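Cast an eye over this sequence plus tokens and explain the fold to me:
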Amino acid sequence: MNGEETTTLGAVAESQQNISNPTETAPVAEQPAQPVQPEQTTVEENN
């Protein structure tokens, strides 16, 4: 999993350099989406 994540991060970084507008919105949203899922659960528990 870690190895795969590193490859995705590298690919996303390369894509961002190629296309800043479309790539920033698509991959950038996908990456934080993963950590956001667990964060949302913690936020709900805090509330």
